[in-house]
Amino acid sequence: MTMHKFVAFESAIPARLFADYCTSKGLQVELAQEGQTTTLAAPAEQLSQIEPLLKQFLTEPEHARYQAAAWQQSRTIATSGKRPSLRWSQLLQSPVTSLIVLLVCLIYLWQQLSFQAANSALMLTEPAQIWRWITPILLHFSLTHIVFNLCWWFLLGQKIEQRAGSALLIQLTLSSALLSNGLQLALVGPDFGGLSGVVYALFGYCWLSDKLAGKHHYPVTDGLAAFMVLWLALGFMDVLWVNMANWAHLGGLACGLIWAVLRHSKQPV
Predict the structure, then answer these.
(1) Secondary structure (DSSP) of 226-237
(2) Which residue in 146, 167, 208, 218 has the fewest CB atoms around it within 10 Å?
(3) Residues annotated catalytic, as ranges
């Protein structure tokens, strides 16, 4: 059966959502990754049925019907005994995001086995050792700390990596780690750790990128951005029940905003 390409998405996520929705309607749709885009193809005889569904999807892609179809397809794969290759391919499309999650989890396990050894090896206590300018982002000091940071890292990192590429996510991560860690070291000291400075960079990048482009590509609304800024301000006011690396957060946020401006000045985001 000959498959005909009928649409290409810049992100794999909406492509996967629409493909799952078509499958739930008994239609045959195949995905293919071509560079930075994901194309969808279907048999010629089904294109007339797919066209109105695609128009509806492009009008309201956030509708619950598409999430429900994706969940249905995921559950069908899991119960049918077939290997969920598409789900694994989604992880492979975000290798940097997945690698950081793995590293953070492994380091957290090390901390549970030998807290002092892990912290001593990775904190920015010896600036002459170059890796220490990055490695504090891998340290977390409670289950709440690691879960909160990894949830936001995975959500935003995956979006950035699938839309703008792994190279940008690496650059954004390393530069924000350097700036946030260096600022925290200079103004407070080396007793800190966590991915939150980088997470603030991702927030800043996603929010300002959408503003500059005039489009909504990333899951950072104005309300959420306002909350993150408020949380940052409360940290500096020292009224929260947790100790926060406030200067790392501020440095990360500034780095993300700078990256958004630089990217937009070169090309539409």
Answers:
(1) HHHHHHHHHHHH
(2) 167
(3) 196, 249
